[in-house]
Amino acid sequence: MGFLQGKRALITGIASQRSIATGIAEAMHREGAELVLTYQNEKLKSRVEDAAAEYGAKLVLPLDVADDGQINECFAQLGQHWDGLDILVHCIAFAPREAIEGDFLDGITRENYHIAHDISAYSLAALGKAARPLMKGRNGAILTLSYLGAERALANYNTMGVAKASLEATVRYMAMSVGPEGTRVNAISAGPIRTLAASGVANFRKMLTAFEAVAPLRRAITIEDVGNTAAFLCSDLARGITGEITYVDSGYNIMG
Ligand code: 0WD
Questions:
Q1: What are the E-state strand segments in the chain?
Q2: Which of 147, 173, 247, 252 is catalytic?
Q3: For ligand 1, is residue 66 a contact (CB within 6 Å)?
Q4: Count of CB atoms within 10 A of residue 196's CB?
Q5: Cβ atoms of 41 and 92 closer than 8 Å
Q6: How distant, in Å, are the alpha carbons of 180, 192, 222, 224 from that of 168?
Q7: 21, 150, 204, 213: which has the highest count of C-beta atoms within 10 A?
Q8: What is the pLDDT of residues 224-251, one digit of tens each?
Q9: How far apart are alpha carbons 27 and 242 in whole angstroms?
Q10: pTM
Q11: pLDDT of 21-31, one tens digit each?
Q12: Strand (E) or helix (H) holding 2
């Protein structure tokens, strides 16, 4: 029997087979969780439906986190499908291209800053707030994905780094908010993985090569690595862990 047997999980952020959310769906399904998946737009719908078929998810819902109406509708529909939710996985980030390349100040505008924070950080709080009534009192877990650029100034990551710092602080404040109801909130700070989102970051390939040379484990991270840690963090095995940022990065962050 898997260690997520009987758990119900909503997983956002599947955009391709390479998405980190795909690795998380795979691991959670393997450990016995029932899944519902969301897709951002019509273009991604059929891919997410394929993933749903693979992981036995009986419901697939549209969810663009820029739209409050869609957030409300998503949880209304989820509430009709399930009478409670145990796991919420947030695998969503976006920043306009010019805000994630070159000189930080050259690429930043009020609009870019706003979009990056709205989609990449505020959305975690928005989903957590909408999910709260369904998650209350079930020893549930919320999980999001961050990156080292939240705490170090890394070339090109720029505005997304600022948004990830906000996301990590949001994890801590949410943990304080829903902890008394038995819900935990954590983040995984993943090493670089070649996904659609990563291809938007300038010089990603060069960064990956440098990462493999320096990281203690001398290898890149896979979506399976992140998926397995996500499954653990959202399970009762991790019931003492909340408000934490867990590094799944071959140890890269410990290096000077
Ligand atoms: O190296 C990496 N790939 C790392 C990614 C290292 C550390 C962290 N992360 C984070 C990302 O910042 C993100 O928060 O992991 C999370 C998942 O990213 P991913 O798996 O690397 O990327 P991808 O497969 O592209 O999924 C991200 C998805 C979007 O895909 P695209 O590429 O089409 O933008 O986030 C979703 C979308 O499906 N997304 C949204 N979903 C709902 N509403 C929205 C939105 N407005 N915007 C983006």
A1: 8-11, 34-39, 59-62, 87-90, 141-146, 184-190, 245-248
A2: 147
A3: yes
A4: 11
A5: no
A6: 20, 17, 22, 22
A7: 21
A8: 999 999 999 999 999 999 999 999 999 9
A9: 20
A10: 0.98
A11: 999 999 999 99
A12: none
